[in-house]
Design goal:
This protein is of the alpha/beta class and about 140 residues long. The protein has a domain at about 30-110. Helix content is about 30%, strand content about 20%. The chain is built from 3 helices and 7 strands. It has helices at about 1-20, 65-75, 85-95, and strands spanning about 30-35, 40-45, 55, 75-80, 100-105, 115, 140. It has a 3-stranded parallel β-sheet, with helices on one face. A two-stranded antiparallel sheet has the order 1-2. A two-stranded antiparallel ribbon has the order 6-7. Strand 3, helix 2 and strand 4 (about 75-80) form a beta-alpha-beta unit. About 10% of the residues are buried. The mean pLDDT is about 90.
């Protein structure tokens, strides 16, 4: 038993060391946070151009990142979210945003109807395919 624990610790130590040596991350210039404090992302803006496209899955009630990509870079943004509050939020906040393409369905490996289980806390917007919060409510969506 002790041998196994020692082996695991050594394997983890040398594995991390090799990753640091061979997969040394490059320092990037021009990293900027786009979007709100809650829904923003840090991205390397020097890699973007007007022909770039963004796919956002599970947009919820914060599309500030999506809209900032359109505002700054004139991107086409394709967003997906089947949840009722997300659909309502997007319709309210993007009525005249030409480059924002919203689809009210989820992404999955095949075209089947799935159960989206409601969150325990009614203030939360995210539903679960795996019923992580053991709730009874759900809706079916392709």
């Amino acid at each position: 038993m002790i041998f196994i624990l020692v082996w695991i610790k050594l394997r983890n130590f040398f594995g991390k060391l090799l990753l640091k040596i061979f997969l040394k991350p490059k320092k990037r210039k021009n990293l900027e946070k786009l979007g709100s404090k809650y829904g923003g992302w840090v991205v390397p803006v020097d890699l973007f151009n007007q022909s770039s496209i963004c796919y956002c899955a599970g947009v919820g009630e914060d599309i500030s990142f999506d809209l900032e990509l359109i505002r700054r870079f004139l991107w086409q943004v394709y967003a997906f979210d089947p949840t009722p509050r997300a659909i309502k939020h997007v319709k309210k906040n993007t009525p005249k945003t030409l480059n924002y393409h919203f689809y009210d369905f989820g992404l999955w490996s095949s075209d089947i109807k799935m159960k989206f289980y409601t969150p325990k806390n009614p203030l939360h917007v995210s539903y679960s395919l795996l019923n992580l919060e053991n709730t009874n409510g759900f809706f079916l969506k392709l």
